[in-house]
Amino acid sequence: MIPLAEFTDADATRTILRSLRLLAVMVVIAAPVLAWKLGWQTAVLFLVGAAISGASLWKWLRLMVAALARMEVPADGVAPASVRPMAPVLVGFFLTLGGSVVALYVSLRYLDGSVYALAAGLALGVFALVIEALRLVKAWTV
After folding, report:
1. What is the mean pLDDT of the segment spanning 137-141?
2. Which of 63, 78, 95, 131 has the fewest CB atoms found within 10 Å of its own CB?
3. What predicted TM-score, i.e. pTM, was given to this entire model?
4. Between residues 100 and 65, which one has the greater pLDDT?
């Protein structure tokens, strides 16, 4: 049993990385099935949604790591050289957000597939995080 008080930044990072791996596995399984059953345009919409979801998880991980590194300044008050500046992380985060909006617009405008596949791709990241959270809860309660 892992006590919640012992949950570290590394545990959070591993959880998000496992969520990304689970998302990739689900995409590899679901995209060909969607292409076969509903057509390539629906599969591409699903892939766009999953790519946005995965990129968002990755950028949240980078943002979390940068923020946590900033909060763990040693007693002397001087941050170590390994701490990345926050500005490039935030710029990357907002560029990813803008790119996601452009990808959503272009895919909805030019692909004649199912919008539900796009929504399913977008929800895949949240689903993967919930699965990993349930695994953590199970580890804490066992």
Report:
1. 77
2. 78
3. 0.85
4. 100
**115-137: b or e for each residue (b if 16 or more CB lie within 10 Å)?**
eebbebbbebbeebbeebeeebe
Q: How far apart are CA 37 and CA 54, in angstroms?
A: 24
For residue 24, pLDDT beyond 90:
yes
Work out the number of other CB atoms within 10 angstroms of the CB of residue 110.
9
- Please list, in sequence order, all residues whose beta carbon lies within 8 angstroms of the beta carbon of residue 28, skipping any fewer than 6 positions away: none
Q: Which H or E run includes 132?
A: helix 115-141
Report the distance separating Cα 105 and Cα 114, nearest Å.
Answer: 14
Q: Give the Å distances, CA to CA, from 105 to 54, 89, 113, 114, 132.
A: 18, 25, 13, 14, 30
Report the 10 Å Cβ neighbour count for 114. 17
**Tokens 């929504």 label which residue?**
119
- 3-class state of residue 43 by DSSP: helix
* Residues 55-78 pLDDT 10s: 999 999 988 888 887 777 665 655
Query: How much of the chain exceeds pLDDT 90, in percent?
Result: 56
